[in-house]
Amino acid sequence: MRFKSAALLLVLLFALPAAAQDMANINFYANLGDQAVATVGDAVKLFALSMGQKPRDFNAARQFLIKEGVFPDKPYAESDTLRRRTAAFMAARYLKLGDSIMYSIFKNERYAVVACGANGIMPADKSEWDALSGAELMELVARVAERAEAGK
């Protein structure tokens, strides 16, 4: 429970300006921390919020993230289970990671996991096919936001 509270606090600190205007977003954060398995829709919404967007719906947020080069242009459904590979790909694209040779060459989800592991953004010893929990997703986005802020 302490982990979930800490992760929620980190995400709220980075996304508070967007969340303060919309009570639904606050409920989203609170519920996400308790989810055993996060969805692609959760990741899309959380990344869009962290980028200062107020997504109206999944498709609008997805299109925004595709346009920004963060989300893979693949036919994901909102309810699809969020796999470590998809989350890593979004994180690597958002942060413009390029220090992994294989990721720099292939720019795919598999090597994004390696790049994120090498950069301490996510554990390096986990499978690319592992499902992420809501708390893990929140922790990942908090790390990404922190690193993006430090890079400015």
Largest sheet entry: none
**How far is it from the N-terminal to the C-terminal residue, by CA?**
32 Å
* Arithmetic mean of pLDDT: 86
What is the chain-wise order of helices and strands? HHHHHHHH
Helix content: 55-70%
- Percent of residues in β-strands: under 5%
Radius of gyration: 14 Å
Number of helices: 8
Structural class: mainly alpha
Task: Compose a concise summary of this entry.
This protein has 152 residues and is mostly helical.
Question: What is the topological layout?
Answer:
Elements: H1 2-20, H2 23-32, H3 40-50, H4 58-67, H5 84-95, H6 101-106, H7 109-118, H8 134-150
Helix pairs in contact: 1-2, 1-8, 3-4, 3-8, 5-7, 5-8
How would you sum up this structure, described in words?
This protein has 152 residues and is an all-alpha fold. 62% of the residues lie in helices and 0% in strands. It contains eight helices and no strands. The model has no long low-confidence stretch (mean pLDDT 86).
